[in-house]
Amino acid sequence: MALPSPAPGCTAVVTGASSGIGAQIARELAGRGHGVTLVARSADKLEALAEELRATGVRAEVLAADLSDAADRAGLLPRVEALGLVPDILVNNAGLSTLGPVHAADVTGELNMIEVDVVAVAELCTRFLPGMVARGRGAVLNVASTAAFQPLPGQAGYGACKAFVLSYTRSLAGELAGTGVAATALCPGPVDTGFGEAAGFSKEDAESALPSIMWESTENVARCGVDALAKGHPVAIPGAANRVAAMVAHLTPKRLLVPILAKQHPGLKSGR
Predict the structure, then answer these.
(1) pTM of this prediction?
(2) How crowded is the C-beta side of 177, counted as CA atoms within 13 Å?
(3) HSE-CB of 74 using CA atoms within 13 angstroms
(4) Which helix H or strand E contains 72, and what residues bound it?
(5) Per-residue pLDDT tens for 63-93?
(6) Count of domains in the chain?
(7) Catalytic positions, please?
Protein backbone atom coordinates (compact mmCIF):
# COMPACT_ATOMS: atom_id res chain seq x y z
CA MET A 1 0.00 0.00 0.00
CA ALA A 2 1.40 3.42 -1.01
CA LEU A 3 -0.80 5.14 1.59
CA PRO A 4 0.73 4.76 5.07
CA SER A 5 -1.36 2.82 7.57
CA PRO A 6 -2.85 4.92 10.37
CA ALA A 7 -0.51 5.12 13.35
CA PRO A 8 -0.55 6.88 16.73
CA GLY A 9 1.36 10.12 16.59
CA CYS A 10 1.12 10.37 12.80
CA THR A 11 -1.07 12.85 10.96
CA ALA A 12 -2.33 13.78 7.52
CA VAL A 13 -1.81 17.50 6.90
CA VAL A 14 -4.59 18.81 4.65
CA THR A 15 -4.41 22.37 3.33
CA GLY A 16 -7.47 24.25 2.15
CA ALA A 17 -9.44 22.04 4.53
CA SER A 18 -12.12 24.53 5.56
CA SER A 19 -14.53 23.58 2.77
CA GLY A 20 -15.06 21.79 -0.52
CA ILE A 21 -12.62 19.16 -1.74
CA GLY A 22 -10.15 19.74 1.08
CA ALA A 23 -12.75 19.19 3.80
CA GLN A 24 -13.96 16.06 2.07
CA ILE A 25 -10.44 14.64 1.69
CA ALA A 26 -10.00 15.19 5.43
CA ARG A 27 -13.23 13.27 6.05
CA GLU A 28 -12.12 10.50 3.70
CA LEU A 29 -8.78 10.09 5.46
CA ALA A 30 -10.39 10.26 8.90
CA GLY A 31 -12.88 7.62 7.78
CA ARG A 32 -9.91 5.36 7.07
CA GLY A 33 -8.56 5.91 10.56
CA HIS A 34 -6.01 8.66 9.94
CA GLY A 35 -5.55 11.55 12.31
CA VAL A 36 -5.69 14.85 10.47
CA THR A 37 -4.22 18.32 10.81
CA LEU A 38 -6.49 20.85 9.14
CA VAL A 39 -4.94 23.94 7.56
CA ALA A 40 -6.67 27.01 6.09
CA ARG A 41 -7.17 30.68 6.86
CA SER A 42 -10.50 30.29 8.67
CA ALA A 43 -9.90 28.84 12.13
CA ASP A 44 -13.63 28.81 12.92
CA LYS A 45 -14.51 26.65 9.91
CA LEU A 46 -11.57 24.34 10.62
CA GLU A 47 -12.62 23.91 14.24
CA ALA A 48 -16.16 22.99 13.21
CA LEU A 49 -14.79 20.28 10.92
CA ALA A 50 -12.32 19.12 13.57
CA GLU A 51 -15.17 18.66 16.07
CA GLU A 52 -17.07 16.61 13.49
CA LEU A 53 -14.08 14.35 12.90
CA ARG A 54 -13.18 14.01 16.59
CA ALA A 55 -16.69 12.67 17.16
CA THR A 56 -15.73 9.70 14.95
CA GLY A 57 -12.81 8.86 17.22
CA VAL A 58 -9.84 10.28 15.29
CA ARG A 59 -7.41 12.99 16.35
CA ALA A 60 -8.04 16.26 14.53
CA GLU A 61 -5.89 19.37 14.97
CA VAL A 62 -6.41 22.89 13.63
CA LEU A 63 -3.64 25.15 12.34
CA ALA A 64 -4.83 28.43 10.85
CA ALA A 65 -2.42 29.64 8.16
CA ASP A 66 -2.41 31.81 5.05
CA LEU A 67 -0.40 29.92 2.44
CA SER A 68 0.08 33.04 0.34
CA ASP A 69 2.33 34.24 3.19
CA ALA A 70 5.93 33.03 3.16
CA ALA A 71 6.25 33.03 6.94
CA ASP A 72 3.11 30.92 7.34
CA ARG A 73 4.38 28.42 4.80
CA ALA A 74 7.79 28.17 6.46
CA GLY A 75 6.24 27.78 9.89
CA LEU A 76 3.77 25.01 9.06
CA LEU A 77 6.01 21.96 9.52
CA PRO A 78 7.49 23.22 12.82
CA ARG A 79 3.95 23.87 14.09
CA VAL A 80 2.90 20.30 13.23
CA GLU A 81 5.99 18.91 14.94
CA ALA A 82 5.37 21.12 17.98
CA LEU A 83 2.10 19.22 18.46
CA GLY A 84 4.17 16.05 18.82
CA LEU A 85 2.95 14.76 15.45
CA VAL A 86 4.74 13.13 12.53
CA PRO A 87 3.31 14.23 9.16
CA ASP A 88 3.23 11.08 7.06
CA ILE A 89 0.59 12.36 4.60
CA LEU A 90 0.55 15.80 2.96
CA VAL A 91 -2.44 16.98 0.95
CA ASN A 92 -1.77 20.19 -0.98
CA ASN A 93 -5.33 21.20 -1.75
CA ALA A 94 -5.38 24.96 -1.05
CA GLY A 95 -5.96 26.87 -4.27
CA LEU A 96 -7.72 29.75 -5.95
CA SER A 97 -8.34 31.15 -9.39
CA THR A 98 -8.71 34.49 -11.10
CA LEU A 99 -11.07 35.07 -14.00
CA GLY A 100 -10.81 37.04 -17.22
CA PRO A 101 -8.10 38.02 -19.70
CA VAL A 102 -4.62 38.69 -18.35
CA HIS A 103 -4.49 42.16 -19.90
CA ALA A 104 -7.41 43.16 -17.64
CA ALA A 105 -6.16 41.34 -14.53
CA ASP A 106 -5.16 42.72 -11.16
CA VAL A 107 -1.43 42.10 -10.69
CA THR A 108 -1.74 41.47 -6.96
CA GLY A 109 -4.48 38.91 -7.50
CA GLU A 110 -2.51 37.06 -10.17
CA LEU A 111 0.62 36.86 -8.03
CA ASN A 112 -1.38 35.81 -4.97
CA MET A 113 -2.83 32.93 -6.99
CA ILE A 114 0.65 31.80 -8.00
CA GLU A 115 1.83 31.96 -4.37
CA VAL A 116 -0.99 29.63 -3.25
CA ASP A 117 -1.36 27.36 -6.30
CA VAL A 118 2.32 26.91 -7.18
CA VAL A 119 4.75 28.25 -4.58
CA ALA A 120 2.94 26.70 -1.61
CA VAL A 121 2.80 23.29 -3.31
CA ALA A 122 6.50 23.31 -4.15
CA GLU A 123 7.56 24.72 -0.79
CA LEU A 124 5.52 22.36 1.36
CA CYS A 125 6.65 19.35 -0.66
CA THR A 126 10.26 20.49 -0.31
CA ARG A 127 9.88 20.95 3.45
CA PHE A 128 7.83 17.82 4.24
CA LEU A 129 9.37 15.23 1.90
CA PRO A 130 12.85 14.95 3.48
CA GLY A 131 11.35 13.62 6.72
CA MET A 132 9.08 11.20 4.87
CA VAL A 133 11.95 9.83 2.80
CA ALA A 134 14.19 9.53 5.86
CA ARG A 135 11.47 7.51 7.63
CA GLY A 136 10.76 5.43 4.50
CA ARG A 137 7.06 6.19 4.89
CA GLY A 138 4.79 8.85 3.44
CA ALA A 139 2.42 10.08 0.78
CA VAL A 140 1.71 13.36 -0.99
CA LEU A 141 -1.57 14.20 -2.72
CA ASN A 142 -1.38 17.38 -4.80
CA VAL A 143 -4.70 18.68 -6.10
CA ALA A 144 -4.43 19.85 -9.70
CA SER A 145 -7.33 19.99 -12.18
CA THR A 146 -8.39 18.76 -15.60
CA ALA A 147 -7.41 22.32 -16.60
CA ALA A 148 -3.83 21.02 -16.37
CA PHE A 149 -4.26 19.11 -19.62
CA GLN A 150 -5.09 22.09 -21.84
CA PRO A 151 -4.62 25.83 -22.32
CA LEU A 152 -7.31 27.80 -20.54
CA PRO A 153 -7.94 31.25 -22.06
CA GLY A 154 -10.06 33.16 -19.58
CA GLN A 155 -8.18 31.55 -16.69
CA ALA A 156 -4.69 31.50 -18.18
CA GLY A 157 -2.85 31.75 -14.87
CA TYR A 158 -4.96 29.10 -13.18
CA GLY A 159 -4.55 26.62 -16.02
CA ALA A 160 -0.79 27.17 -16.02
CA CYS A 161 -0.62 26.74 -12.24
CA LYS A 162 -2.43 23.43 -12.41
CA ALA A 163 -0.26 22.28 -15.33
CA PHE A 164 2.72 22.94 -13.06
CA VAL A 165 1.18 20.87 -10.26
CA LEU A 166 0.53 17.94 -12.61
CA SER A 167 4.01 17.96 -14.14
CA TYR A 168 5.67 18.51 -10.76
CA THR A 169 3.80 15.63 -9.15
CA ARG A 170 4.52 13.23 -11.98
CA SER A 171 8.19 14.06 -11.58
CA LEU A 172 7.99 13.60 -7.81
CA ALA A 173 6.47 10.16 -8.32
CA GLY A 174 9.47 9.20 -10.43
CA GLU A 175 11.98 10.61 -7.96
CA LEU A 176 10.32 8.88 -5.00
CA ALA A 177 10.20 5.39 -6.51
CA GLY A 178 11.66 2.90 -4.05
CA THR A 179 11.70 5.33 -1.10
CA GLY A 180 8.45 4.20 0.52
CA VAL A 181 6.89 7.57 -0.30
CA ALA A 182 4.23 8.07 -2.99
CA ALA A 183 2.96 11.12 -4.87
CA THR A 184 -0.33 11.51 -6.72
CA ALA A 185 -1.85 14.40 -8.66
CA LEU A 186 -5.62 14.58 -8.26
CA CYS A 187 -7.16 16.26 -11.31
CA PRO A 188 -10.88 16.91 -10.80
CA GLY A 189 -13.14 18.44 -13.38
CA PRO A 190 -16.05 20.65 -12.30
CA VAL A 191 -17.19 20.24 -8.70
CA ASP A 192 -19.90 22.27 -6.97
CA THR A 193 -17.84 23.70 -4.09
CA GLY A 194 -18.21 27.46 -4.45
CA PHE A 195 -14.71 27.65 -5.95
CA GLY A 196 -15.98 29.08 -9.24
CA GLU A 197 -18.12 31.68 -7.53
CA ALA A 198 -15.09 32.82 -5.52
CA ALA A 199 -13.20 33.28 -8.81
CA GLY A 200 -16.04 35.33 -10.30
CA PHE A 201 -18.12 32.72 -12.16
CA SER A 202 -21.83 32.55 -11.72
CA LYS A 203 -23.01 29.00 -11.10
CA GLU A 204 -25.22 29.30 -14.18
CA ASP A 205 -22.26 30.21 -16.40
CA ALA A 206 -20.23 27.29 -15.11
CA GLU A 207 -23.07 24.84 -15.61
CA SER A 208 -23.78 26.09 -19.14
CA ALA A 209 -20.11 25.85 -20.15
CA LEU A 210 -19.57 22.35 -18.74
CA PRO A 211 -21.98 19.45 -19.42
CA SER A 212 -23.71 17.92 -16.40
CA ILE A 213 -22.06 14.56 -17.09
CA MET A 214 -18.69 16.09 -16.15
CA TRP A 215 -19.73 17.31 -12.69
CA GLU A 216 -18.58 15.19 -9.76
CA SER A 217 -19.41 15.35 -6.05
CA THR A 218 -16.76 16.22 -3.48
CA GLU A 219 -17.26 12.73 -2.04
CA ASN A 220 -16.37 11.05 -5.35
CA VAL A 221 -13.40 13.35 -5.90
CA ALA A 222 -11.97 12.76 -2.44
CA ARG A 223 -12.45 9.00 -2.64
CA CYS A 224 -10.84 8.87 -6.08
CA GLY A 225 -7.80 10.82 -4.87
CA VAL A 226 -7.21 8.80 -1.72
CA ASP A 227 -7.80 5.50 -3.56
CA ALA A 228 -5.27 6.49 -6.22
CA LEU A 229 -2.74 7.43 -3.57
CA ALA A 230 -3.29 4.10 -1.82
CA LYS A 231 -2.69 2.26 -5.11
CA GLY A 232 0.40 4.29 -6.01
CA HIS A 233 -1.13 5.86 -9.11
CA PRO A 234 0.65 9.09 -10.10
CA VAL A 235 -2.47 10.71 -11.61
CA ALA A 236 -6.16 10.43 -10.75
CA ILE A 237 -9.02 11.97 -12.75
CA PRO A 238 -12.45 11.48 -11.14
CA GLY A 239 -15.20 10.49 -13.55
CA ALA A 240 -15.12 8.72 -16.92
CA ALA A 241 -16.32 11.81 -18.79
CA ASN A 242 -13.50 13.90 -17.35
CA ARG A 243 -10.90 11.26 -18.22
CA VAL A 244 -12.09 11.25 -21.82
CA ALA A 245 -12.23 15.06 -21.96
CA ALA A 246 -8.71 15.37 -20.55
CA MET A 247 -7.36 12.92 -23.13
CA VAL A 248 -9.11 14.69 -26.00
CA ALA A 249 -7.88 18.11 -24.84
CA HIS A 250 -4.35 16.79 -24.47
CA LEU A 251 -4.29 15.24 -27.96
CA THR A 252 -6.11 17.96 -29.92
CA PRO A 253 -3.77 20.35 -31.77
CA LYS A 254 -3.65 23.52 -29.71
CA ARG A 255 -4.03 25.80 -32.74
CA LEU A 256 -7.50 24.26 -33.10
CA LEU A 257 -8.34 23.94 -29.42
CA VAL A 258 -7.44 27.41 -28.14
CA PRO A 259 -9.90 29.40 -30.31
CA ILE A 260 -12.73 27.06 -29.31
CA LEU A 261 -11.93 27.37 -25.62
CA ALA A 262 -11.60 31.14 -25.85
CA LYS A 263 -14.99 31.42 -27.52
CA GLN A 264 -16.70 29.26 -24.90
CA HIS A 265 -15.11 30.53 -21.69
CA PRO A 266 -17.47 32.62 -19.52
CA GLY A 267 -14.59 34.85 -18.46
CA LEU A 268 -14.17 36.11 -22.03
CA LYS A 269 -17.78 36.43 -23.12
CA SER A 270 -18.04 40.09 -22.16
CA GLY A 271 -15.47 40.96 -24.80
CA ARG A 272 -11.74 41.57 -24.93
Answers:
(1) 0.93
(2) 7
(3) 3
(4) helix 70-82
(5) 999 999 999 999 999 999 999 999 999 999 9
(6) 1
(7) 158
